[in-house]
Amino acid sequence: MTGTDGPLIAAIETSCDDTSVALVRGGREELAHKSQTQIEPHAAMGGIVPEAAARIHVEAIDAVWHACLTEAGVDAAELDALAVTQGPGLPGSLLVGLGFAQGLAAAVDCPLIPVNHLEGHFASPWLNEGDPPEFPLVALIVSGGHTELVYGAAPGEYRLIGRTRDDAAGEAFDKVARMLGLSYPGGPAIQRAAEGRDGSPLELPRAWLPGTSDFSFSGLKTAVRRLVHDELGPVEAARIGAAHDGAAGIDDPEFVADVAYAFEVSVVDVLVTKTVRAARQMHAATITLTGGVAANARLRAALDAASPVPVHVPALRHCVDNASMIAVAGAWRLARGEVANGPLEPEPGLALA
Ligand code: KG4
Ligand code: ZN
């Protein structure tokens, strides 16, 4: 792999519900990655509870940091720089990572690089072996908090070309899963429920928002809610929707599979059509698909089939939040000289472009 001579960067990512530390050399080679996910405690609460997330980060971060350095056999004094997610994300969660990173950077006297979480997702395909994506590219970043279509001319040169006007794609997966009595996180649960299907008697709407590269998923979510109400009646639908972690599943696997499939193909159809259209219009050399929803098998296959240019998708563990992608974006920023020269504050609403 290329990049083995480049800077050794440690990264810390705590923007949401994963406490994650990574060591990456040359912006490409992952030496070690340790992550402690909070899926279990949050699943028990039916979704992410911000105060709980911050507290769990505080409890976990020191051990995750040491485990990562130990696995790579690296001493903190060897680091060329330390990268940390500054935003967007949950304010309390961001603060834990930033505080820890600032203390460390001061203690080992190395440059500290604030990283935009979305630039991290954008950079995640560079962790793949083989040739990296070619610029200019169109990047579809789809996660629990974001649905963004970005034109990238070069590292650091981004233009936002479309975004969701309401729910993020992953958020829609999570909410629809809950309506169907499936477990959190909803994306994998819906994928499993719809697996192997290639048709459904149900048809769900697509929000095309003509003339824009924007997305909307709230109408689709409402359509699913109506279907579930019509099938189960309002009382049972409300009972299922209020239960946590699939505790009150719908006793009709065929209906659940039909809805899950119709929902999944509706989301995939809009995401793929708009991404491919943007790539053609902007003469992109490649398309990248990143973020937690990029783990979706139907989305990966459909984008691959429809794209006129190579599609780069990170490994599954680099689709969901991880610190390795923050280290890659950190390496790009280090090359541009973008290091912190004072105290860093969380920027929960930070935009990519
Ligand atoms: O990137 P990520 O780990 O966290 C955020 O930055 O939001 O993305 C998490 C999101 C969740 O909404 C989850 O349901 C979704 O990614 N997700 C999936 C799949 N795996 C995770 N969505 C669809 N299909 C999947 N297989
Ligand atoms: Zn993310």
How would you briefly describe this protein structure?
The chain has 353 residues and is of the alpha/beta class. It contains twelve helices and ten strands. The relative contact order is 0.19.
Characterization of this structure:
Helix content is 44%, strand content 18%. The model has no long low-confidence stretch (mean pLDDT 94). The protein is globular and about 60 Å long. β4 (81-87), α3 and β5 form a beta-alpha-beta unit. It has helices spanning 39-45, 50-72, 91-108, 117-123, 169-179, 186-194, 218-232, 234-242, 253-281, 297-306, 316-319, 323-335; strands spanning 8-13, 18-25, 29-37, 81-87, 112-116, 137-142, 147-154, 157-163, 286-290, 311-312. It contains 12 helices and 10 strands. It is α/β, with parallel strands linked by helices. The longest helix has 29 residues, at 253-281. The strands form 2 sheets. The protein has a 5-stranded mixed sheet, with helices on both faces. It binds 5'-O-[(R)-(carboxyoxy)(hydroxy)phosphoryl]adenosine and zinc ion.
